[in-house]
Design brief:
Elements: H1 2-17, H2 36-45, E1 48-51, H3 56-73, E2 87-92, H4 98-102, E3 116-123, E4 126-133, H5 136-151, E5 160-163, E6 169-173, H6 203-214, E7 219-221, H7 234-247, E8 253-257, H8 262-265, H9 277-293, E9 299-302, H10 319-330, E10 336-340, H11 352-360, E11 371-376, E12 400-405, H12 421-428, H13 441-445, E13 456-460, H14 475-487, H15 493-505, H16 509-530, H17 562-565, E14 571-572, H18 589-596, H19 606-609, E15 612-613, H20 624-648, H21 655-687, H22 702-707
Parallel strand pairs: 1-2, 2-4, 6-7, 6-13, 7-8, 8-9, 9-10, 10-11, 11-12, 12-13
Antiparallel strand pairs: 3-4, 3-5, 14-15
The structure holds 4-O-methyl-alpha-D-glucopyranuronic acid.
Residues 175, 183-184, 225-226, 303, 307, 342, 381, 409, 717 line the site of 4-O-methyl-alpha-D-glucopyranuronic acid.
Amino acid sequence: MHKFIYCFSFFLGTFFQSIAEDGYRLWLRYDLVNNPDLLIQYREQIQSMLILGENASMEAVKNELQLGLKGLLGKDIPSGLLTDNHLLLVGTYGPNTILSERLTPNETENLGDEGFSILTKEIDGKKIISITALHDTGVLYGVFHFLRLLQTQQDIENLNIQSIPKIKVRILNHWDNLDRTVERGYAGFSIWNWHQLPEFIDQRYIDYARANASIGINASVLTNVNANALILRPDYLEKVKALADVFRPYGIKVYLTARFSAPIELGKMETADPLSEDVQSWWNEKVKEIYEFIPDFGGFVVKANSEGQPGPQNYGRTHADGANMLAEAVAPYGGFIMWRAFVYSNEDPDDRHKQANNEFVPLDGKFKSNVLIQVKNGAIDFQPREPFHPLFGALEKTPVMMEFQITQEYLGQGTHLVYLGPLFKEVLDSDTYMEGRESTVGEIIDGSITGQSITAMAGVANIGSDRNWTSHPFGQANWYVFGRLAWDYDLSAEAIAAEWVKQTFGNDPGMGQVVESIMLDSREAVVNYMTPLGLHHIMGAGHHYGPGPWVSKMSRAEWTSTYYHRADSLGVGFDRTSTGTDAINQYHRQIARTFESINHCPEKYLLWFHHVPWHQPLASGNTLWNEICLHYQKGVDQVAGFVDRWQNIQDSIDEQRYHHVLSLLTIQLKEARWWRDACLAYFQTFSQLPFPEGVEAPLNELKYYESLQYPYAPGIRPKW
Ligand code: GCV
C-alpha cells in the first residue's frame, strides 16, 4: 500500500512537472523524489527536524528546509525533539550548545567561517543527521548541500561530509546601470528596481539571495564598473541598504563600484586627485556614511583609467595611489578594494596584451593590504578561448583575484548554448610555473602559492529581469558553475554539469547523459565556429554580436578585428613571440619557451601567438588554411548534432523548456553557419585558396556579411 501511495504521488509529481516549467525556480526546484525506493529511504531517515538558533539566518535555514523537504519528500516534516530517532539536527556548533555535546571537536573545529559538516551519528541508539558549522552562514551552506544531495538522489544512509570554501570572497559583478539597462546583459533589464526601492522588496531579491547562497556566492557588486557616482548619494544608499538587509541572512555582502571622479561629481570639488587631502577626507566621509547605512558593506570595485573611466592617472598618480586612498577609507570597517587590472591605452602603441603587466608588475608590493587586483582570466577580453592572463604568476606581494565573465558577451550572448565550466577549469588548472613547480592559477588565487589571506573570485553576472533569470535556460548553468568553482575549483566541470542537470531537468539518467554531453561539447563548438586555433576578438564592432573579422576602423585600434588577426597574403595570426611584440615573455620562461616555438605552441593558441603561413602544415598533416576551414565546419556540425541530440530527448524534458531550448539551438545553428560563412569568405580573400573537401562554401558573398547591421543588439554600452 505504502509503495502504491509513493508511486501515485510520484506520478502526480511527474505529471505536474511536465506541465509548465518557466525556469524561475532555477536549480532549486525541490520536486518530489521520483525514485520510490529512495523516497522511502529519505522519509525514513528524516522523520523530524530540530533547528537550533533564532535569528534571520536561521530563519532562512528553516524556510529553506521546510520548502525543500516538503517538495522533495511530499510531506511536511514536523519539528522534533532531541530524543527522536531519525532526527535532522541543524545548528551552529560552539561551547555548551546542544550540538557540542553530540559531536566531537575534530568534526567541526577546522570549519572556519563558512565551512560545514554533515554527519550521520548514532546517539543513545537513535540516529541523527547533523548539519552544523561554526557560524550561521556555514549552516545555511550545509543545508543547501544537503538539499542538493536529495535533489540529485544520493544515498544519505551514512553521511560524513566536511566542506570548506577555498576562496574567501565569491562575488558576482553586475554591470547594471541605474536606469536598469545592463551592459553586456542579455536577459532583460536589471533586477534592481532602483525606482521602487527601498520600499518595494521584490520576491526576486530573496530568491536571488537563496540561489546564490545555495552555490556559496557570498558577495554581490550591484553596479556597473563603468560607474555612476549617483549610487553614492544618500537616497541611493538607502536603496542599497534595503538590498543589503535582504541579502544579509543569506551571508551575502553588498559591494558598489566607485566612480573615481565622484568627489567632483557629487562633492562639487575641483579635483579627484588621490593625494589631495580634501579628496581623501571626502572619501573618508562618504565611506563613513555608507557604513552607517550598511555596517557590513564589503567595499568597492574600481575600473580606473580604462576605456575612458577616470582614475588616478588623470592626476599623474599611479593605480597604487588611487587604490590605496580608497583602501584607507574602508580599512577601519574591514572593507576591501577590488582594483581592476583591465587597463589598456590608445596612446600606448604596445600590444594591448602586455599593458596590464607593464602597469601592475612595477607596483607589486605597493598596495595596502586590503587591496586585491582583479584580473580578467585572459589578457584581452573574455574570448571563447584565451591563454591565462600573465598577471597570474607575476604578482608576488599583492593579492590577485580572478574575474570571469558569466554573461556571454563574446560567446553567442543570450542565444547560444555554451557551458562555461570547461573554460573556467582550463584557466584555473593552467600552470603558471610561478614557483618553478606546479602553481596553477587556482592555487594563486586561493593564496596557497603567495601566502595571501585575502582571496576572491568574481564573475560578471548574466542575470536579468527575464522570468527565467538568464534568458537562455542553459545560462543558469554558468551562474551555477561559477559559484561551485569559486567554492572549490577542484570540482570537475563534468561533475558540476551532472549535478546541475539533475536539479534542473530531473534525474532520468538517459536524458542526463545527453544533456551533459551537449554541455561538455558546447565550449569547444563555439571556439570552432567563432575563433578556432587562437583567433580572437573578431566579433562585430561595439555589440560584439556575430562575426566581424573585417572591422578595421574604430576610434581605437585595439577595438578592431584586424588589429588581432593580422591576416595578409602570407598568413594569419598575431606575432607575440620575441621577434614580434614579445608578450610571450610576460609568462614564466618555461611557458614562454613552449609558446615561442611554432612547433610546440599548443594549436589551440597558435594564432594567438604566431603569424602563421597559410601553407604551414599542422599536427593533423593539414595546412593551416585547411585546418581553419575544417574547424569552422566542425563547429557547425557540432551544433547540428546538439539539435539532433536535444530532439532525441523531447519526451524527458518539460514542454516549455524543451521548445525554448530547441528554438535557441535553431538560432545557434543559423548563427554558427553565419560565423563559418562570413569568416571563411573573409579569410579566403587573403589565402586565395579553395575550401577543402567537406567544408561547405559560404552561402553569400563577403559583402553581404559585411553589410549586416545590428544597431539594437542588446547589452550595448549605453551613453551615460
Ligand atoms: C564594462 C569589455 C566590454 C565592456 C566592459 C569592459 C570592462 O570592453 O566590452 O562592456 O565594460 O570590457 O570589463 O570593463
